[in-house]
Amino acid sequence: MRILTHSAWLEPVGGVEVCTLQDSLGLRTRGHALDVVYGVDGPFREQYEQADVGLFGPAPFHFDPRRAPGHLRSFLPAVRWARARRPDVVWLNRTEHLVWGQTVSRLTGAPLVCHLHVLPAYRRMRLFGHGVAHFAAVSEFVRGSYLERGVPPERVSVLPNAVRRSDYPVGGRTERAVARHRLGLPQDAPIVLCYGQMTPEKGVATLVRAWSAVRARRPDAVLVLVDALAANGQRPSDGLLRGLDPRAYRLFGASGDVVPFLHAADLVAFPTLLPETFGRVVIETMSSGRPVVASRVGAVPEILGAEMEHLLVEPDAPDELARRLESLLDWRVTEPDLGGRCSAWVDQCFAFDAHLDGLEDIFARHARGRAVSAPTRAARRLRR
């Protein structure tokens, strides 16, 4: 099957770009041909090229009805390239680019499958969703938001995000020591990691207040922040950190590889205030064998259910966040099996192979003429 998708950035600006990359590479390993139209070039290019993924860009995706003729004309170079690739399905990962996806789908003749990583970009999704063969939501929370906007239930399935264990491997004490040495972090200090976009909406101010309380009782603890928005000497998060003892934290810029930071940490904080559509940080962290303390918002409780529910805290509650973080700083002593339970939870609930099976099945059901079939899990077993 030949699949055409898009990525606004070829860099880890957010979870959508990371999911698109890893899903694309996974589909390539299963023998599918992948082509990607991109908006902004970046470090992901090398991984796409190594996997023999076709790339076209930079290309615009934005559409404003007030400037419809000009914006539609701006789509034409990508459309011409896409038509030459003859895709069996167009796979859209951002609904704010829905008009671009519909245009490419119509002019290539390939059905459009929309992967719902974000909340609805349009109030009347039933109307704007016209021409979409199927929607795949990353959580029940996201599915519900599209149903509320008028998308028929039978057109929206749930396909949770997943991670490959090899991308976020478990790290023990040896890996922790190596990672801390590499990053210049103290070997014996309890370390809490927070990574992603360091903005008020992601709860950084809440975390700063909580960390001041933690440090009052555990002055040896260190907060490590990896800011996806920090680049070229610019650090937007500096203002949010004002007032925090400089000895209490270390700030790093954007990184395409978070594994060394995960291995260096004892646990991870995800204090977001946003109605998260999934919470990829949660499963990345747990895959590496570390607990995560996360806000009870959006789809996050879907990930941290049952035996992992104790890792949830209320959003914008610095006192509760401080208590939960402090209680887990020494989990290797007080709860030594917690790391193994975390990684097993991801294997059980968010296995990457099962995720790819679901994605393949959706594509196969809606591919051009339905003449192209994807190998299902059962079929692969039979071939073995």
TrEMBL record:
CDD domains: GT4_PimA-like. The keyword Glycosyltransferase applies. Pfam families: Glyco_trans_1_4, Glyco_transf_4. Gene3D superfamilies: Glycogen Phosphorylase B (3.40.50.2000). The keyword Membrane does not apply. Residues 13-163 form the Glycosyltransferase subfamily 4-like N-terminal domain. InterPro entries: Glyco_trans_4-like_N, Glycosyltransferase_grp1. Keywords: Glycosyltransferase, Transferase. This is Glycosyltransferase family 4 protein.
